[in-house]
Design brief:
Blueprint lengths: L11 H12 L4 E3 L3 E2 L5 E3 L10 H5 L11 E3 L5 H14 L1 H7 L2 H12 L5 H13 L1 H17 L10 H10 L20 H19 L6 H8 L21 H15 L7 H11 L6 H12 L15 H13 L13 H23 L4 H7 L6 H29 L9 H14 L3 H4 L10 H4 L1
Antiparallel strand pairs: 1-4, 2-3
Amino acid sequence: MDTPIDSDFIDPRHFTKTVLQLAGSCPVLASRAIFSAIGAKVLEKSAALHPGLYDRLTQQPLSAPLEYSVCTGESLTSQSLRAAAAQILRDIPFFARMAGDPHTGAALLDAVASVALPAAVAFQLALARDVYPQLYQRSLRTALVSAWLAQAPMASRPDMGMAAAAGLLHDLGMLHLDPILLKPEAGLDTNQRHQLDAHALVSKALLERHHAFPPELLRAVAEHHEYLDGSGYPKQLAGDAISDLGRILSLAGMVATVFAAGRDAPEQHLFVILRMNLYRYDTALVARLMALIKHELDVLNMGMSVLQDPVDQLLKIEQLIADWPAALMDIPKLAPARHAGLALLASQVTQLQHQLAHAGVGPAQLRYIGSDALDDSLQQELTLLAKELAWQLRTLARQTCLCWRLAPEERYPDALQDWLERVDAQVAPADVFIKNSPLAPVDNALVAT
């Protein structure tokens, strides 16, 4: 309980508000007397919390984090975790195939049920379950996929139980940040974006407090939005700098988001994402997923909305990627940090273009396909590709802005400003297709999908 969390990352008022929201619908009690940091008693032991206590609980810092001092009658246990995970294996065909034979399914459920549940962690999971059920269900799906992927051959094969724990707990930090981050339609200001980019570190710090989780798990939680090509966050780690468990968790979180309730054609969507992002993920893990998907693709019913002309959309997006202003690196006296950041982005642009060609949707290949007489299957696949590529274009624009990082009164160079405006004009009309991308850095996708 002694690991501090940077106050720039977390405001305890957000978590308090969520706890009191739960208290408005089911009993939440003080498991011990609650004191302020200066020793004043705020609430007696066994007192019931209610929304009217917000000012009293937030007027001064508390002597201990609130999650250590409260409990709910609807407690979360290893048995309830196992039952919820078993429901996922029954309800989602992909997960049922992932479970395979009864022995494998039992091993996955045992891994989830084995997760250590200190009282404060159990309370936070119950809070997610009852206030943000989409976040809770996504964490369960991530736990199952992580445990399953832990069976893949890797340099240091993680234990299935540890992988399940990392998947279940990796987004605990989201409960302590501004709740607007969990609203898919919300536009984020600079401070909210800063919180979001830091949420993996918040989750790690929250878990460190308990001294119940191994260093490998804590490291993976901090890495769960890092990608092998260095395009992730919060530290832009790349390659061998990302642990094996971190690689599992990054991929498992994406898979879990694809299979959120109500999503169109999730298996086809996952197949396209994997084809388009081979450079982001561990190849052994991707191959394991691909093998689980491929034999089902021909019999699945797409049942999804499509773009009228996905070829045209893809060509326009690919042109904008090709027009990324690499000449910015040639500006005289460019700050070293900007030059290094731009050089990394330039390599990612080249890598993306190579990946498009490898996937069969480079500009020359698209022109050969043409827009006339696309059969339903191809139109659906190209729509999914356009959706993912539109997200990647938007992400490239955001990363370029972060790399340039304007000083007060500074303006973007004309070439960059022009390119950003063209990106906005191209991507904005396609928001309906890209807002739920499971790869997006904005974790609004936790509830959007």
